[in-house]
Each structure stands twice: as structure tokens, then as C-alpha cells.
Amino acid sequence: MISLSAVAPAPTAAHVHSIPELGTPEFDALPSAQAVSPMDARALSKTLFLRMAKLEEGTHEYQYVRNTLVELNLALVRFAAARFRTRSEPMEDIVQVGTIGLIKAIDRFDPEREVEFPTFAMPTILGEIKRFFRDTSWAVHVPRRLQELRLQLARAGDELAQRLDRAPSVAELAAHLELTEEEVCEGLTASNAYSVSSLDAQPSEEDTEGSFADRVGVIDPGMEGIENLESLKPVMAQLSERERTILSLRFVADMTQSQIGAELGVSQMHVSRLLSRALGKLRAHLLVEE
């Protein structure tokens, strides 16, 4: 959990153009950051960013102004965190992670740029929250029972590995946790769903053969031909022997109609008629099956 340093009272919009110096009675008398309205907080933040840019990083006054900016802009974090209220993680954790993004945005913000701080900060806050979910969430939905079993197996595995000086077997894990071997195998399988590897990742640092994506097989174009052939087999059986021969010479041997005519001793025109008739029969049978 983030623990921000206690901050002194923050100035209000009435003092935007004339903020008392840090440590003076006038400054200490100003109300807290939580009492500042959103509009006043935005205007006040501009002034504080300009002041922080002139301070030496690491000084007490610099840290004070920085923490005050965090307090003034926590509403941005709560607004961003509300987008994820349907997630299973506690809202307090999401707000804490978002606050880290807010702090990063404050450190990176340049008040000389013509951009409002909320516009600049929101992508950083949301990015930090999304990174939190990416690093801590399961890649696919897994029942709560298996999520808890994964944690038990991880702790038991570490404990037994130290005791045995080797990786424990499924039987040893089952005996240690008083579970069946089937339950242990189920939990170990569920662990694979906790994280996924990018297809662009290298299998190992020493591997020079490319990423996982480079090794993924592609669909063999010949598979479609096999499927079509299997579909045509019962229909082909209903054709005459001559029709089957002509289809084989045309589409398997890739012969022209003239070559087929010379092979069978008939004219090219006759081959064309026989071929059209055979294809018509195939088309008719396939349409009936559909």
C-alpha cells in the first residue's frame, strides 16, 4: 500500500495568484486539499506545477508541493478506478495502483506545455491500472477453487523442494496437502492459465531460431483438397467409367481437352460435352446433399 507523507493544508482558488510561502502562518491557515472544489483544484494545480518546476528536487518544499499535487488530483484516480469496479480485485488496491500512475504523471508533467494536467495524467493512470490487471489476473477464467489450489501447490512445492532438494512429485504433493493425485494434477493444469506468453517472445535467450509465432504451423492448403475429395467420393461412384476417366485426366493429370481427346480417340468438342455433363451431375448431387 502507498503511504504518502503527511501534507500541510493546501491553498484554495482565492490564493492561486498569491500563494503564501511554505512554513508561514498564512500558509498553514489554508484549508485542506480535500476541501478544494474540482475547478479550484485544477487552477491551483497549475500554480503549484509552476512553483515545483522552480524548486530543487529532494528538498522539503519540493516534496511538500508534490504531495499537495497528489492530494489535489486524487479525484482523477478515483474516476479512473471506477471504470474497473466490476473486477474482482478490491477497489482500494485499484486506487492505490492508480495513485502510482498519478505520481508518475506529476513527475513527468511539463507546465510549459499547452495541455491540461488531467488530459496528460489520465492515460498514465489508466495504463498503470491495466498493467496491474495484466500482471495479476488470470489469462482465462478459472474457478476460485482452482485459483486457491494453485496457491497451495505453489507454497507446498517450494517447501518440499527445500526439504527434498529437488522438485516434488505429484504423489508427494498430494500426500503433503492431503489431496488426491487427480486434484493435484487438476491444480497444476490450472496454473497454466495464470499467464500466457506472447507469440512474439523468444523461447529462451540462447534461442536464435525466432519467436513462437515463427514456429507455429500454417494451414496446409492441400487439406481443403482432401476434404473436397472425400465429399466427392460417393458422388463420383455414380458416374460412368468414361466420365470418371475424363474428370481424372482433366483435374488430376491437368490435361487439356485436346490432350484428353487425343488420349481417348475422340474430338475435343465431344470431350467438352462429356466433361460438362459429368460436372453437371456432380453439381446436382452436391446441391441435393446440401
From TrEMBL:
Domain RNA polymerase sigma-70 per the UniProt entry, residue ranges: 93-106
Q: Cross-referenced InterPro entries, in alphabetical order?
A: RNA_pol_sigma-70_dom, RNA_pol_sigma-B/F/G, RNA_pol_sigma70, RNA_pol_sigma70_r2, RNA_pol_sigma70_r3, RNA_pol_sigma70_r4, RNA_pol_sigma_r2, RNA_pol_sigma_r3/r4-like
SUPFAM superfamilies given in the database record: Sigma2 domain of RNA polymerase sigma factors, Sigma3 and sigma4 domains of RNA polymerase sigma factors
Q: Answer yes or no on keyword ATP-binding.
A: no
Q: What keyword terms does UniProt attach to this protein?
A: DNA-binding, Sigma factor, Transcription, Transcription regulation
In Swiss-Prot or TrEMBL terms, this protein is called RNA polymerase sigma factor SigF
